[in-house]
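Input set for joint prediction.
Command: fold jointly, output tokens.
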Amino acid sequence: MTSANTSVRPPALEIHDLTVAFDRKPVLWNIDLALPQGKLVGIIGPNGAGKSTLIKAVMGILPLSSGYAKIFDQPIDDVRSRISYVPQRESVDWDFPASVLDVAMMGRYAKLGLFRSPRKADRDAAMDCLKKVGLEAFAHRQISQLSGGQQQRTFLARALAQQADIYFMDEPFAGVDAATEKTIIDLLTSMTQNDKTIIVVHHDLQSVSQYFDWVILLNTRLIGYGPMEQTFNQANLQETYGGKLTLLSDVGDLIRRENFPNREGAKKVL
Amino acid sequence: MNALIDFFSFSDPNIRFVAFGSVLLTASSAIVGSFTFLNKKSLIGDAIAHAVLPGICLGFIVSQTKDPIILIVGAFITGWLSLVAVEFITARTRIKEDTAIGLVLSVFFGIGIVMLTVIQKSGSAAQSGLDHFLFGKAASLVGSDLMAFGTVALLLLVAVYLLFKEFTLLAFDKDFARSIGMPVKRIELVLTSMIVLAVVIGIQAVGVVLMAAILITPAAAARFWTNRIKVMILLASIFGAISGLSGAYISYIAPAMPTGPWIVIVISTIAFISFFFAPKRGVISRLIHQRGIRITINDENILKALYQLGEEAHDFFGERNLEDILRRRKLHPEHLVKILKRLKQQGYLERHDGRWRLTEEGKNRGQRVVKIHRLWELYLTTELRIAADHVHDDADTIEHLLTPELEAELEQLLKYPKQDPHKSEIPYP
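tokens >
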């Protein structure tokens, strides 16, 4: 894809002045960014940098203290059917009474809408996605009997079943074996070749430049974002991982202690 | 005995009412409760159950009748109020949910008991029987009551049928549900209303004090038997129905007896049985599985010892006596004989004049154990850089555990090595 082309199309994701707070303390301060379509984007930063928080806030799972996020230049709620979200593997109870196929089928729920139960076609589609991640032989297995890598692939199959245009994935490589990591990255790369946009929270600095086209460097505030070769440099990494901004963190603590609103007119906590 | 036949022949229309009513109430509570259980919100059910009491009393005070519809409305209002209170306290103060539930539960129940006492002392003739809501009385289910409660129960079943996929997704992965634009708040509202309704109708049979048991216990018991949510909910409803029916029976033969405690005893017995005897997830099944593992380890250790004796003697099929084996493997001779006999029965060993020799199959199995042991030692020293004198104990466990797939993976990874870290030869078939 040429850069002229990308500049004409609306950005896959645009975030404007976004602040998110937990218990009043801001964990993300005034994030501003825009990502083009069809890229594989890594979100990089140390523990507690707000990587997962950023995508949860964009998905509307966490409340925003300020700012907004738009996808394909539209409010999130208007384009939900084009978005897929893959939560962290540890965020669900894998002892839930469900089979691998049941979970993959959840990717079809948005298309089905309320009250309707999955049809045979949805089953076929889910099965097809399990095939793509190499889990067709495990379709009827209970999800607690899977390895970590297989659980992650189950989540991926569910995401594929959504047939979305933009994917947000929270640490899809955490705790997976080398074979699964390879399967996943190959799949993601081929998806971006079909013009899908994929945004991945990632932990392993070693593989960043090899895996992603674009990178977002995050540590409570945005340090930088852009194409890999321009952004993923020593200076930016130093700023992302080197020394915490103690003053910023102290101010955040103060806001929490004093029960201060993040923005004037925000709700009160007793 | 006659009472038993009388009751279960269902010839008396009154008995039919009571039996059908209790089954419907407990089964529908169990079905709705399954989602409470899967949402890990079991305590909430308890809070609602206690909080409906003031609502029932209020309904009576306002109307001066025991009209089930008015009582349901009253119970529904205070049941909901308790939930709102819990949610408000958790969201707006630093008090955690369990504390909030404890606070709300006792306050509402306390108020309810005060109101009930006032009503009972008021001398109103209509009030008699209101205390049945405390511990339940299935036998008092008649005609019009049953119509009202039955309608609510059917309503609950229809709602679960229609929103089954939504309730399931919400219990499994709420963030994902939000991300696909499911109206999570509204569906939660529906589910919570259903829990309140299930409590409101269930207390007729069980009473407010023990209502949580009929909401949660059937689901908890059913979970032991299956890994499929639909089967689990079906089982929960059957367990609920069984306990409801037995409660109704007790209520019929011993009218002075409150129904609730009996229902709880029956459902708890079912839960205990499930806890111990369910296949796979039950305690006994797990113990049997553990025992199987111990037997496998003992058997394989003896085959390994015999194989290693064969290595020493350069003759795998030579006859060995007990002392030979005990030299390699310290254990009680009687225990050893037991293991040897078992291995003989399984065709891994042969016995001639009190001496033992490996069969072809026995040699192969012993060889596999030795091979995995030595491969694992090599893996630990080369890949994990663990000192060669620290790897033996670990390998002693792993040798009994590895699946053929992992074994093949290990061989490939290490490129079919010839020797382990202690220079012993790694045997391949």
